[in-house]
Specification:
The chain has 502 residues and is an alpha/beta fold. The protein has two domains: 268 residues, 3-Layer(aba) Sandwich (Aldehyde Dehydrogenase, Chain A, domain 1); 184 residues, Aldehyde Dehydrogenase, Chain A, domain 2. The chain is 38% helix and 22% strand. It has 15 helices and 23 strands. Strands 15-16-17-14-13-19-20 form a seven-stranded mixed β-sheet, sandwiched between helices. Strands 10-9-8-11-12-22 form a six-stranded mixed β-sheet, with helices on both faces. It binds nicotinamide-adenine-dinucleotide. Nicotinamide-adenine-dinucleotide binds next to helix 7. Keywords: NAD, Oxidoreductase. GO terms for molecular function: methylmalonate-semialdehyde dehydrogenase (acylating, NAD) activity. This is methylmalonate-semialdehyde dehydrogenase (CoA acylating).
């Protein structure tokens, strides 16, 4: 199913077939557990980008006019195929991203939940109807698709993040151009093949491989009507500003620095398990990873001890070998994360667990960095201020709930957060007062279910619409209100005045 066997170039995808394009640029695709280059990915030139966009534009009128019943039948078929064969997709993710197989399977399952949500879209596309709003005048609303839409996704969830958007976009009658990350592009083609097998007509789901050039064309080309972006904050801001300047609807989800607050009355075993899972799962390369632990009052010593004990048991290695945690995505990223640990140590943080010297169960050339726990981190250290996107958990000690809340609310990001406590009143106050889009109460990674919407606040999201759920349906459709009157014998003839309701 994958196009990324060695010697091969991972291509674009148009009209239910691979499309080699005319661009000559490529980038390496690497297995992070071995350091081996396993394929090259095509980097679109302008002609390629336009060819993919044109395919999506050509397919739109027929797909828009395809009945809801037919559209949802194809979605159901896609869901069945995905469910049967998700192991294949998980293996592709592990081979290019590095996350362990179980985690890759979890990613696919979370994406599948959005497909299942989108299977029920007829209910969400129903409009309202008011009979006799004025005498013999009816008013009703309908929601219609936008046209070809672009999805630009990051490396860390090569299947789930595209699936936050494309099931809803396609179910609502739009056509799609997916521009995946260059680092792990093969999942996109596997998904494209699955759509073809599910019976999706040519041109409804297309893949454009590439870098900034491809993204800029998606932002500027007038055929593209909306852009869903997920990635780092500087690029999210750029995509939002440029896309909206070109008149498009844009939702651009950015980076994160997620804090967990542990109050003195919390169950410390539960909190320690949660911190290890949320800090080191997927090697910390999750936008919902916890990277700052705010220990309130006297919990810090005991909690740090419990986390350290657990972190030391984590087995690092090849994601296909039954390990707990895989490598980082590239050598450059691994070295950058390690340099943050160096800087934290130099600035006075205590390195309680040091991942820089980890012994991994994998190739010598793998991009390994073990779980790292830093204590006594202060808020001026780069390890605290920056999004690191690696397996590094920084402990900040504070005296009170108010001090902890102020830290979270002062942070420029607002993606996810969690509080650990047995005090319902404190938790309730937190859910009300915290300025973050997704909140966990004794839950470290509060990713909403597909029928709610996913999105952060502040620098974690540009635009006002979150992903999937009813917000996703609204994003991929536009409303129309129709006022209708059918003449009957009471027709009153000419009247140039503004109508009054009577
Ligand atoms: P990235 O910003 O480097 O890349 C994201 C996408 O933008 C890719 O498709 C890439 O090709 C493209 N891109 C990169 N540079 C560009 C440029 N100069 N101009 C135009 N396009 C460009 O992000 P990444 O490293 O792939 O992913 C990690 C980041 O994504 C982290 O910051 C993480 O927090 C964030 N993320 C956020 C969420 C969320 O829901 N908020 C989810 C997943 C990941």
């Amino acid at each position: 199913m994958t196009e990324s066997t060695s010697q091969q170039t991972v291509s674009h995808w148009i009209n239910n077939k691979p499309y080699p394009g005319t661009g000559t640029g490529t980038a390496p695709v690497t297995n992070p557990a071995t350091g081996e280059v396993t394929a090259r990915v095509a980097l679109a030139d302008l002609k390629d980008a336009r060819a993919v966009i044109d395919a999506a534009a050509a397919a739109f009128p027929a797909w828009r006019d395809t009945s809801l019943a037919k559209r949802t039948q194809i979605l159901f078929r896609f869901r069945e195929l995905l469910n049967e064969r998700k192991g294949e997709l998980a293996a592709i993710i592990t081979a290019e991203h590095g996350k362990v197989l179980d985690d890759a399977l979890g990613e696919v399952t979370r994406g599948q939940e959005v497909v299942e949500f989108a299977c029920g879209i007829p209910h969400l596309l129903k409009g309202g109807f008011t009979e006799n709003a004025s005498t013999k005048v009816d008013v009703f609303s309908i929601r219609q698709p936008l046209g070809p839409v672009a999805i630009i996704s990051p490396f860390n969830f090569p299947a789930m993040v595209p699936m936050w958007f494309f099931p809803v976009a396609i179910a609502a009658g739009n056509t799609v151009v997916l521009k995946p990350s260059e680092k792990d592009p093969s999942a996109s083609l596997w998904l494209a093949r699955l759509w073809a097998e599910a019976g999706l007509p040519d041109g409804v789901f297309n893949v454009l491989q590439g870098d900034k050039l491809a993204v800029d064309e998606l932002l500027e080309n007038p055929a593209i009507k909306a852009v869903s972006f997920v990635g780092s904050t500087p690029i999210a801001r750029y995509v939002y500003e440029r896309g909206t300047a070109y008149g498009k609807r844009v939702q651009a989800l950015g980076g994160a620095k997620n804090h967990a607050i542990v109050l003195p009355d919390a169950d410390l075993d539960l909190a320690a398990d949660a911190m290890v899972n949320a800090g080191f799962g997927s090697a910390g390369e999750r936008c919902m990873a916890i990277s700052a632990l705010v220990a309130v009052g006297d919990v810090a010593d005991e909690l740090v001890g419990k986390i350290a004990e657990r972190a030391r048991t984590i087995r690092i290695g090849d994601g296909t070998a039954g390990c707990d945690m895989g490598p980082l995505v590239t050598r450059a990223h691994r070295d950058k994360v390690a340099s943050y640990v160096d800087a934290g140590e130099a600035a006075g943080a205590e390195v309680v667990v040091d991942g820089r010297t980890v012994q991994a169960d994998g190739g010598d050339q793998g991009f390994w960095l073990g779980p790292t726990l830093l204590d006594h981190v202060s808020t001026d250290m780069s390890v605290y201020t920056d999004e690191i996107f690696g397996p590094v958990l920084s402990v900040v000690r504070v005296e009170s709930y108010d001090e902890a809340l102020d830290l979270v609310n002062a942070n420029p990001y607002g993606n996810g957060t969690a509080i650990f406590t047995n005090d319902g009143g404190a938790a309730r106050r937190f859910q009300n007062e915290v300025e973050v889009g997704m909140v966990g109460i004794n839950v470290p990674i509060p990713v909403p279910m597909a029928y709610y919407s996913f999105g952060g606040w502040k620098n974690s999201l540009f635009g006002d619409t979150h992903a999937h759920g009813t917000e996703g349906v609204n994003f991929f459709t536009r409303g129309k209100a129709v006022t209708s009157r059918w003449l009957d014998p009471s027709h009153g003839g000419l009247n140039l005045g503004f109508p009054q309701n009577n």
